[in-house]
Amino acid sequence: MVSRGSHNLYTSRFHTRKLSPSIITFYTILIFGFSIFVFFFYVRNTIIDEDQPHPLLSQQSLSHQVPELPMYDEKLWDPPFSHGLHQCVKPTARYKGAQGVDRYLTVRSNGGLNQMRTGISDMVAVAHIMNATLVIPQLDKRSFWQDSSVFSDIFDELHFIESLKGDIKIVRELPKNLEGAPRARKHFTSWAGVGYYEEVARLWNDYQVIHVAKSDSRLANNDLPLDIQRLRCRAMYQALRFSPPIEDLGKRLVDRLRSRWGRYIALHLRYEKDMLSFTGCAYGLTDAESEELRVLRESTNYWKVKKINATEQRIGGFCPLTPKEVGVFLLALGFPPSTPIYIAAGEIYGGNTHLSELSSRFPNLVFKEHLATPEELKAFTNHASQNAAVDYIISIESDVFVPSYSGNMARAVEGHRRFLGHRKTINPDRKGLVEIFDRLETGDLKEGEPLSHLVQQMHKNREGAPRKRQGSPPGIKGRARFRTEESFYEDPYPECICGSRSKLERT
Ligand SMILES: *[C@@H]1O[C@H](CO)[C@@H](O)[C@H](O)[C@H]1NC(C)=O
Ligand SMILES: *[C@@H]1O[C@H](CO)[C@@H](O)[C@H](O)[C@H]1NC(C)=O
Fold first, then answer.
1. Ligand 2: does its nearest atom lie under 6 Å from the Cβ of 309?
2. Which of 73, 176, 289, 431 is the most exposed place for a label (fewest CB within 10 A)?
């Protein structure tokens, strides 16, 4: 706008003064140059203005020196167009904090790191609805991960309490005089709405302490008041910061990755024993391996489904991509073999036997052990959740995030990246890809151009561009609807991501 205005102003003067052609040319060039200068100045300011106030981001965006990549398609690394959308988590004018004096909610969270994080964020909202004081939740020590960490090992406890001060009261422990008091022990119903918790709040007439046995999926994804949804976002994206040792290590590793490799993909390679066993996915495994996984599945109590047809799982798109499939997929998208790929995962099942099918295609696989010293990692060994937290940070900060399976971590990271300004997340269409991989295997399709074309078309709209959270697929009725809706934390749009009209609400 500015440049066009100044252009017109100057050209009108030329006509009145009748200058020689060479001077006109000189002025034209001068004006042209000035317009370009104004344009870039304007663009630059706009970009800086759009930066999100995430603590880690500030170091990231300016340090993209890529040493050696040739002219591969730059678009591969570009974030999707975000239409000027940005995070918005401020409460509305109607909102009131809940003080909840003398009523306490104690919580045992269950599951791995990300299941606990979303569960705890929901419990913050539930404590607000029920007007209760939240006692710092206990973490799960019995899940597959067997991690003995307590809340303050993983999260910044003080920050959690302080930053939610205006929303709910949080205390470290039950007051001494209530330790022996009778508690109502509740299994809250899954995907419940506000009405349910207002009903449950009647228990305060008889009890001062309510204990929640399980925290995952206790709150509906949709149809909750805007202020409750925003409170979930404040809890998840602002209050539940990791503990200082984890944040520090995460940042340090991101810095080392960037200075050594420049841009990188973070690959959540969910090719771990528990996941393969739980999903019954045996494709590409030896008989001995699938037998081991079957035995593990049948002996794990809290995995309910025991008999699984591996072929049907795979065809349905319910299996994590194998390391080989990930390699073929990323090459087909156009990523050059030199691309650095950070492996965000625990132990890869079968170790190098399976991993080599990825590293043969992408030799620059980067593991935590390559970036951190043994001393730095020592504090984290045998603490799966703390390791997962470091992976979470590195995944959030990556240029491109690719999950090989849509589990809790994949969903949480994808949602967080949307919240931070629609950073690129390439979500593999596993059902579609399996069809393609099978055609490759039968020779019906060739690697190279035809494969690339198919894979790229298939993923054009799966790059983390803004879109509203999806409801359940049509035709699904009753309570199954809640389970099949897209998770709130996978896409907190529209409640916590807003257009430019609500700019004032930006935090
Ligand atoms: C919350 O509880 C306190 C007492 O603990 C009460 O004074 C207040 O009115 C309650 N607020 C709501 C919104 O119910
Ligand atoms: C598993 O499912 C496939 C495809 O539906 C079928 O061909 C196969 O016989 C099934 N295997 C077993 C062991 O039931």
1. yes
2. 176
The CATH number of the domain holding residue 404 is: 3.40.50.11350
The number of distinct structural domains making up the chain is: 2
Which residue's CA is the nearest one to ligand 1's atom 14?
Answer: 131
Among the atoms of ligand 2, which is closest to the Cα of residue 312?
A: 2
Smallest-distance ligand from the CA of 294: 2
Last residue in a domain, options 195, 223, 239? 239
């104004």: which residue's tokens? Answer: 38
Do 316 and 221 belong together in one domain? Answer: no
Domain of residue 140 covers 104-239
> pLDDT band at 19, cuts 50/70/90?
low
CA dist 456 and 339 (Å) reads 18
Confidence at 74, pLDDT banded by 50, 70, 90 = confident
Instruction: Judge whether 304 lies within some domain.
Output: yes
Most confidently modeled range among 30-39, 55-64, 234-243, 472-481: 234-243
Write down which residue in 239, 270, 302 finishes a domain: 239
User: Ligand 2, residues 294, 312, 319, 434: which to mutate, most atoms within 8 A of Cβ?
Assistant: 312
Q: Please tell me the number of the ligand nearest to residue 311's CA.
A: 2
Q: How far is the C-alpha of 79 from the C-alpha of 412, rounded, in Å?
A: 18
Dihedral sign (CA 367, 368, 371, 373): negative
Residue 312 beta carbon below 6 angstroms from any ligand 2 atom:
yes
pLDDT, position 95: 97
